[in-house]
Amino acid sequence: MRILFTGGSGKAGKHAIAHLLEQGHRVTNADLMPLDLPGVDSLRVDLTDAGQVFNALHAYAGFDELESGTGVPSYDAVVHFAAIPCILIRPDNETYRINTLSTYNVLDAAVKLGIRKVIFASSETTYGICFADGDKKPDYIPIDEDHPTIPQDSYAMSKVVNEITARSFQARSGFDIYGLRINNVIEPHEYATNFPAFLDQPELRRRNIFAYIDARDLGHMVDCCLKTDGLGYEVFNVSNDDLSVGISNQAVIERFYRGVPQKRDMGPNETFYANNKAKRLVGFAPQHSWRDVL
Protein backbone atom coordinates (compact mmCIF):
# COMPACT_ATOMS: atom_id res chain seq x y z
CA MET A 1 0.00 0.00 0.00
CA ARG A 2 0.99 3.62 -0.49
CA ILE A 3 0.67 5.18 2.96
CA LEU A 4 0.99 8.67 4.39
CA PHE A 5 2.10 8.34 8.01
CA THR A 6 1.96 11.45 10.21
CA GLY A 7 4.26 11.75 13.19
CA GLY A 8 6.52 8.95 12.08
CA SER A 9 9.59 10.53 13.65
CA GLY A 10 8.19 10.03 17.15
CA LYS A 11 8.80 7.18 19.56
CA ALA A 12 5.86 5.07 18.40
CA GLY A 13 5.87 6.14 14.78
CA LYS A 14 9.45 5.24 13.90
CA HIS A 15 8.95 1.63 14.96
CA ALA A 16 5.59 1.38 13.23
CA ILE A 17 7.03 2.72 9.98
CA ALA A 18 9.93 0.28 10.15
CA HIS A 19 7.45 -2.59 10.48
CA LEU A 20 5.32 -1.31 7.60
CA LEU A 21 8.38 -1.05 5.36
CA GLU A 22 9.24 -4.65 6.21
CA GLN A 23 5.75 -5.65 5.05
CA GLY A 24 6.41 -4.05 1.66
CA HIS A 25 4.37 -0.87 2.04
CA ARG A 26 5.57 2.47 0.67
CA VAL A 27 5.50 5.06 3.45
CA THR A 28 5.74 8.85 3.39
CA ASN A 29 6.50 10.32 6.81
CA ALA A 30 4.70 13.65 7.25
CA ASP A 31 6.30 15.32 10.25
CA LEU A 32 8.00 18.50 11.36
CA MET A 33 11.15 16.43 11.93
CA PRO A 34 12.68 14.10 9.32
CA LEU A 35 13.08 10.38 9.98
CA ASP A 36 16.50 8.93 9.22
CA LEU A 37 15.34 5.51 8.10
CA PRO A 38 16.30 3.93 4.77
CA GLY A 39 13.35 3.42 2.47
CA VAL A 40 11.00 6.01 3.93
CA ASP A 41 9.99 9.16 2.07
CA SER A 42 9.87 12.35 4.14
CA LEU A 43 7.77 15.49 3.88
CA ARG A 44 7.84 18.36 6.35
CA VAL A 45 4.22 19.25 7.12
CA ASP A 46 2.50 21.45 9.68
CA LEU A 47 -0.70 19.47 10.22
CA THR A 48 -2.52 22.40 11.84
CA ASP A 49 -2.45 24.07 8.41
CA ALA A 50 -5.30 22.57 6.36
CA GLY A 51 -3.75 23.66 3.07
CA GLN A 52 -0.51 21.83 3.81
CA VAL A 53 -2.43 18.69 4.77
CA PHE A 54 -4.50 18.67 1.57
CA ASN A 55 -1.37 19.23 -0.50
CA ALA A 56 0.58 16.50 1.31
CA LEU A 57 -2.18 13.97 0.73
CA HIS A 58 -2.15 14.64 -3.00
CA ALA A 59 1.55 14.79 -3.79
CA TYR A 60 4.37 12.73 -5.22
CA ALA A 61 6.18 10.70 -2.59
CA GLY A 62 9.50 10.65 -4.45
CA PHE A 63 11.17 11.54 -7.70
CA ASP A 64 10.67 8.01 -9.02
CA GLU A 65 6.93 8.61 -9.21
CA LEU A 66 7.48 11.20 -11.92
CA GLU A 67 8.68 8.55 -14.34
CA SER A 68 5.35 6.97 -15.25
CA GLY A 69 3.91 10.18 -16.64
CA THR A 70 0.47 9.32 -15.27
CA GLY A 71 0.15 12.09 -12.69
CA VAL A 72 0.15 12.04 -8.92
CA PRO A 73 -0.74 8.59 -7.53
CA SER A 74 -3.31 8.32 -4.76
CA TYR A 75 -2.60 7.24 -1.22
CA ASP A 76 -4.28 4.01 -0.17
CA ALA A 77 -4.30 4.86 3.53
CA VAL A 78 -3.42 7.44 6.14
CA VAL A 79 -1.94 6.57 9.53
CA HIS A 80 -2.19 9.58 11.83
CA PHE A 81 0.12 9.41 14.87
CA ALA A 82 1.27 13.03 15.03
CA ALA A 83 0.38 14.87 18.23
CA ILE A 84 1.72 16.67 21.24
CA PRO A 85 2.32 13.36 23.06
CA CYS A 86 1.68 14.25 26.68
CA ILE A 87 0.65 16.93 29.13
CA LEU A 88 3.27 19.30 30.58
CA ILE A 89 5.10 19.74 27.26
CA ARG A 90 3.06 22.65 25.88
CA PRO A 91 0.41 24.78 27.63
CA ASP A 92 -2.81 22.81 28.05
CA ASN A 93 -4.85 24.85 25.57
CA GLU A 94 -2.10 24.57 22.96
CA THR A 95 -1.90 20.79 23.39
CA TYR A 96 -5.67 20.61 22.91
CA ARG A 97 -5.64 22.96 19.89
CA ILE A 98 -2.82 21.21 18.04
CA ASN A 99 -4.10 17.70 18.64
CA THR A 100 -7.73 18.36 17.71
CA LEU A 101 -7.09 20.68 14.77
CA SER A 102 -4.45 18.45 13.19
CA THR A 103 -6.73 15.41 13.46
CA TYR A 104 -9.66 17.30 11.97
CA ASN A 105 -7.48 18.44 9.06
CA VAL A 106 -6.17 14.93 8.36
CA LEU A 107 -9.63 13.34 8.46
CA ASP A 108 -11.21 16.13 6.41
CA ALA A 109 -8.57 15.91 3.69
CA ALA A 110 -8.57 12.11 3.59
CA VAL A 111 -12.33 11.90 3.22
CA LYS A 112 -12.54 14.64 0.59
CA LEU A 113 -9.72 13.03 -1.40
CA GLY A 114 -11.38 9.61 -1.27
CA ILE A 115 -8.76 7.83 0.86
CA ARG A 116 -10.88 5.04 2.28
CA LYS A 117 -8.68 3.84 5.16
CA VAL A 118 -7.60 6.05 8.06
CA ILE A 119 -5.97 4.76 11.25
CA PHE A 120 -5.44 7.28 14.01
CA ALA A 121 -3.73 7.20 17.37
CA SER A 122 -5.99 7.60 20.36
CA SER A 123 -4.77 6.80 23.86
CA GLU A 124 -5.03 4.88 27.11
CA THR A 125 -5.46 8.29 28.72
CA THR A 126 -9.04 8.57 27.42
CA TYR A 127 -10.13 6.34 30.32
CA GLY A 128 -9.24 9.17 32.71
CA ILE A 129 -6.70 7.34 34.86
CA CYS A 130 -3.28 8.23 33.50
CA PHE A 131 -3.26 11.99 34.12
CA ALA A 132 -5.94 12.18 36.82
CA ASP A 133 -5.47 14.39 39.87
CA GLY A 134 -4.93 11.81 42.60
CA ASP A 135 -5.58 8.09 42.56
CA LYS A 136 -8.34 7.42 40.03
CA LYS A 137 -9.40 3.78 39.82
CA PRO A 138 -11.15 2.23 36.81
CA ASP A 139 -14.89 1.62 36.97
CA TYR A 140 -14.18 -2.08 36.46
CA ILE A 141 -11.44 -4.47 35.41
CA PRO A 142 -10.26 -5.46 32.93
CA ILE A 143 -10.76 -2.17 31.09
CA ASP A 144 -12.30 -2.73 27.66
CA GLU A 145 -13.45 -0.30 24.97
CA ASP A 146 -16.87 0.13 26.64
CA HIS A 147 -15.31 1.73 29.74
CA PRO A 148 -16.32 5.42 30.15
CA THR A 149 -13.94 7.98 28.65
CA ILE A 150 -14.26 11.06 30.87
CA PRO A 151 -10.74 12.37 31.49
CA GLN A 152 -9.68 15.50 33.34
CA ASP A 153 -6.64 16.64 31.33
CA SER A 154 -6.21 18.49 28.05
CA TYR A 155 -4.28 15.74 26.29
CA ALA A 156 -6.83 13.01 26.97
CA MET A 157 -9.67 15.44 26.24
CA SER A 158 -8.16 16.05 22.81
CA LYS A 159 -8.08 12.30 22.17
CA VAL A 160 -11.73 11.86 23.16
CA VAL A 161 -12.68 14.72 20.83
CA ASN A 162 -10.63 13.14 18.04
CA GLU A 163 -12.57 9.89 18.44
CA ILE A 164 -15.87 11.77 18.13
CA THR A 165 -14.56 13.66 15.11
CA ALA A 166 -13.47 10.40 13.48
CA ARG A 167 -16.87 8.81 14.11
CA SER A 168 -18.56 11.76 12.42
CA PHE A 169 -16.31 11.63 9.36
CA GLN A 170 -16.91 7.89 9.09
CA ALA A 171 -20.68 8.45 9.23
CA ARG A 172 -20.35 11.02 6.45
CA SER A 173 -18.15 8.90 4.20
CA GLY A 174 -18.71 5.23 4.98
CA PHE A 175 -14.92 4.78 4.92
CA ASP A 176 -12.96 2.63 7.38
CA ILE A 177 -11.65 4.79 10.22
CA TYR A 178 -10.04 2.94 13.12
CA GLY A 179 -8.82 4.49 16.36
CA LEU A 180 -6.05 2.89 18.41
CA ARG A 181 -6.21 3.49 22.16
CA ILE A 182 -2.49 2.91 22.54
CA ASN A 183 -1.09 2.04 25.94
CA ASN A 184 2.33 3.16 27.18
CA VAL A 185 4.74 2.50 24.28
CA ILE A 186 7.90 0.63 25.22
CA GLU A 187 10.91 0.45 22.92
CA PRO A 188 13.00 -2.75 23.03
CA HIS A 189 15.93 -1.14 24.88
CA GLU A 190 13.62 0.12 27.62
CA TYR A 191 13.04 -3.35 29.06
CA ALA A 192 16.56 -3.45 30.46
CA THR A 193 16.65 0.22 31.47
CA ASN A 194 13.15 0.82 32.87
CA PHE A 195 11.58 -2.44 33.91
CA PRO A 196 13.82 -3.33 36.87
CA ALA A 197 12.31 -0.35 38.67
CA PHE A 198 8.81 -1.51 37.73
CA LEU A 199 9.52 -4.90 39.26
CA ASP A 200 10.74 -3.32 42.50
CA GLN A 201 8.02 -0.66 42.62
CA PRO A 202 4.85 -1.83 40.85
CA GLU A 203 3.09 1.37 41.94
CA LEU A 204 5.05 3.15 39.20
CA ARG A 205 2.74 1.47 36.66
CA ARG A 206 -0.57 2.40 38.30
CA ARG A 207 -1.30 5.29 35.95
CA ASN A 208 -0.70 3.05 32.93
CA ILE A 209 -3.14 0.44 34.27
CA PHE A 210 -0.14 -1.88 34.77
CA ALA A 211 -0.03 -2.38 31.00
CA TYR A 212 2.25 -1.57 28.05
CA ILE A 213 2.61 -2.04 24.30
CA ASP A 214 5.88 -3.05 22.68
CA ALA A 215 6.63 -0.59 19.85
CA ARG A 216 7.16 -3.49 17.44
CA ASP A 217 3.77 -5.00 18.29
CA LEU A 218 2.20 -1.59 17.76
CA GLY A 219 3.56 -1.64 14.21
CA HIS A 220 2.00 -5.08 13.78
CA MET A 221 -1.35 -3.70 14.99
CA VAL A 222 -1.23 -0.91 12.43
CA ASP A 223 -0.56 -3.44 9.68
CA CYS A 224 -3.45 -5.62 10.90
CA CYS A 225 -5.75 -2.62 10.58
CA LEU A 226 -4.46 -1.80 7.10
CA LYS A 227 -5.27 -5.36 6.02
CA THR A 228 -8.76 -5.41 7.55
CA ASP A 229 -11.52 -3.74 5.56
CA GLY A 230 -15.18 -3.14 6.14
CA LEU A 231 -15.39 -2.43 9.89
CA GLY A 232 -16.49 1.18 9.49
CA TYR A 233 -15.66 3.06 12.68
CA GLU A 234 -13.98 1.15 15.49
CA VAL A 235 -11.70 1.86 18.43
CA PHE A 236 -9.27 -0.71 19.82
CA ASN A 237 -7.26 -1.04 22.98
CA VAL A 238 -3.67 -1.80 22.01
CA SER A 239 -1.55 -3.58 24.61
CA ASN A 240 0.62 -6.61 25.15
CA ASP A 241 -0.90 -9.66 26.77
CA ASP A 242 0.82 -9.48 30.14
CA LEU A 243 1.22 -7.08 33.05
CA SER A 244 4.17 -4.70 33.12
CA VAL A 245 5.00 -5.64 36.72
CA GLY A 246 6.41 -8.78 38.31
CA ILE A 247 3.66 -9.41 40.85
CA SER A 248 0.60 -11.45 39.92
CA ASN A 249 -2.74 -10.20 38.71
CA GLN A 250 -4.31 -11.06 42.07
CA ALA A 251 -1.58 -9.21 43.97
CA VAL A 252 -2.24 -6.08 41.89
CA ILE A 253 -5.94 -6.33 42.69
CA GLU A 254 -5.28 -6.68 46.40
CA ARG A 255 -2.84 -3.74 46.51
CA PHE A 256 -4.38 -1.32 44.01
CA TYR A 257 -7.85 -2.40 42.84
CA ARG A 258 -9.49 -3.61 46.03
CA GLY A 259 -13.25 -3.15 45.69
CA VAL A 260 -13.13 -2.53 41.91
CA PRO A 261 -15.70 -4.76 40.14
CA GLN A 262 -14.18 -7.55 38.03
CA LYS A 263 -16.13 -8.33 34.85
CA ARG A 264 -14.64 -11.77 34.20
CA ASP A 265 -12.04 -14.24 35.34
CA MET A 266 -8.49 -13.35 34.36
CA GLY A 267 -5.21 -15.22 33.98
CA PRO A 268 -2.48 -14.78 36.60
CA ASN A 269 -0.41 -12.40 34.43
CA GLU A 270 -3.14 -11.14 32.10
CA THR A 271 -3.22 -7.44 31.25
CA PHE A 272 -5.88 -5.26 32.85
CA TYR A 273 -6.00 -3.33 29.54
CA ALA A 274 -8.09 -5.79 27.54
CA ASN A 275 -6.95 -6.35 23.94
CA ASN A 276 -9.50 -9.06 23.05
CA LYS A 277 -11.38 -6.87 20.58
CA ALA A 278 -8.26 -6.18 18.51
CA LYS A 279 -7.48 -9.87 18.41
CA ARG A 280 -11.01 -10.79 17.39
CA LEU A 281 -11.65 -8.16 14.71
CA VAL A 282 -8.28 -7.50 13.07
CA GLY A 283 -6.13 -10.49 14.04
CA PHE A 284 -3.80 -8.67 16.42
CA ALA A 285 -1.27 -11.12 17.86
CA PRO A 286 1.41 -9.44 20.00
CA GLN A 287 4.69 -11.34 20.09
CA HIS A 288 6.91 -9.49 22.56
CA SER A 289 7.20 -9.31 26.33
CA TRP A 290 9.53 -7.85 28.92
CA ARG A 291 9.68 -11.38 30.32
CA ASP A 292 11.73 -12.44 27.30
CA VAL A 293 14.44 -9.99 28.37
CA LEU A 294 14.40 -9.95 32.19
UniProtKB/TrEMBL annotation:
InterPro entries: Epimerase_deHydtase, NAD(P)-bd_dom_sf. Its EC number is 5.1.3.2. One of its GO terms (molecular function) is UDP-glucose 4-epimerase activity. The keyword Isomerase applies. Residues 3-206 form the NAD-dependent epimerase/dehydratase domain. CDD domains: SDR_e (cd08946). It comes from the Bacteria. It holds the Pfam family Epimerase. Keywords: Isomerase. This is UDP-glucose 4-epimerase. It comes from Reinekea forsetii.
